[in-house]
Amino acid sequence: MELSNRPGEPTPSLGPEKTSVAGGLMPLLAAAREKLKNKDLPAALALYESILANASDRSDVLMTISADLGTNGYVQEIIELLAPRYDVEKHGAPAGINLLQAYLVTRNAEAAQHLLDLLFSLGRPELEARLVGFSNAVSELFISETEAENTAEPGKKISLVSISKPIWFYGVEALAPLLWTRPSGKLRRVAFAQCAMLGLENSVVSAAQSESLTGQLCRGLPLWLAETFSYSAGYAPVAAIGTFDNDYAVFPMEWTAENLRQLNDSTDGGLDYVVTGTLRNRNDDFELSMRIWEVKKFRELKTFSARWTPTSGDSALLLLQEQLCKYMEWTALPAPAQEIYSIPASPLTYILSLGAALSFFLSDKGVLAASQQPTDLTALLRAAQSNPANSTAQFMLIAGLLRLPDLGRAQEPAAFLHAQGWLTSPAAQSCQISDLQAKFN
């Protein structure tokens, strides 16, 4: 959410003609800004109310207040303060654009459309291109809200599960603790949220939808990206997955600002960034969109997209990963992590195996019903076979094999033989996993 200070028109000065508030407006606005920086929202709002009681007709005052609130992440408060006072003829475009963006972030499509119509009525050619962009965003919001209404299931409360380590590491950490360690130093905290599944036609969000190929990808994608950044020197990532009633949740619309705030508040130490996504499947023609949000200012930084068919998924996903890592300045951890992590040659099979590994893990922990366990290790074995040079794909299969006895499941010979063979390879020897190898001798 990029808030306007002077988008296309000069800002009137805070001159002496409107300083009836004791001490003048500028010191009060500065004091309120300082309160926001110190997370004292009630004190800032009290100052704003006193300012607006005397200067609500000034466009520069509304623009400054909305910009300061948005910069500090208080989007709903922009609406509460500005909406009752904003007049497009009196206040012009800057404050209106800030209010419009607040409506979009909070997914209030009707209010956004009404305000957008008013801004268009100003007839400002220099704002035309920007307003057209907002018009497209409002249209997308109406579409997603319609889909959500058609798929909503009342009475369901979604819980978020945060995965802070590579999902396969939870199965081997006792035997091979050096396979992953959290990097040291000042780390940027990023959450990769479960992707929303767009285009659902059923009136009820069901477990069958969550277990579809699209549903598996919606969970596997954030796990894949979180794992990628867990091997970066500058990040502390988590993957956020939704569950309800011992089942997976399905998000029929993209995460809202309130969802992001809840995720941030429930994360120890808070977050710097959240990456959200939407995935749509039209006859196996997939469309993925991912947005990077800066949590402090609750603004969108960048959007990435990918599109693929069953034969082009790997190349499209590898390109998406490359673009995302480049934008977020991903840097590799030093050895021995360099010997563990590598980019999978077939990310599509790898992503699906991450989703299967998650189901084994969460059912073992009682978060999911036992019926949510995959029937076998096929997805994990396929990923290991499709990515022979990728150590983490092999460890994912090994973790699955180690978990089977705890789940009361019989060993699977094909998967066991593959793991046993890889553990004797030169690649495995370099990982210093003798305790793990002993389990398969």
Describe this structure in words.
There is one protein chain. By secondary structure, this protein is α/β, with parallel strands linked by helices. It folds into two domains: 16-150, Serine Threonine Protein Phosphatase 5, Tetratricopeptide repeat, CATH 1.25.40.10; 152-438, no CATH class. It has 20 helices and eight strands. It has helices spanning 25-37, 41-55, 59-71, 75-82, 88-91, 93-105, 109-120, 128-151, 169-172, 207-210, 213-230, 257-265, 313-327, 337-340, 347-364, 378-386, 391-403, 413-423, 426-429, 434-438, and strands at residues 159-163, 188-193, 196-198, 235-244, 247-248, 273-282, 285-294, 299-308. Strands 1, 2, 3, 4, 5, 6, 7 and 8 form an eight-stranded mixed sheet that branches. A hairpin with a 4-residue loop joins strand 7 and strand 8 (299-308). The longest helix has 24 residues, at 128-151. The termini are far apart.
* Ends distance: 56 Å
Helix content: 40-55%
Number of helices, where a helix is a run of at least 4 consecutive DSSP H or I residues: 20
Query: What is the average per-residue confidence, as pLDDT, rounded to a whole number?
Result: 83
Largest sheet data: 8 strands, mixed
Strand content: 5-15%
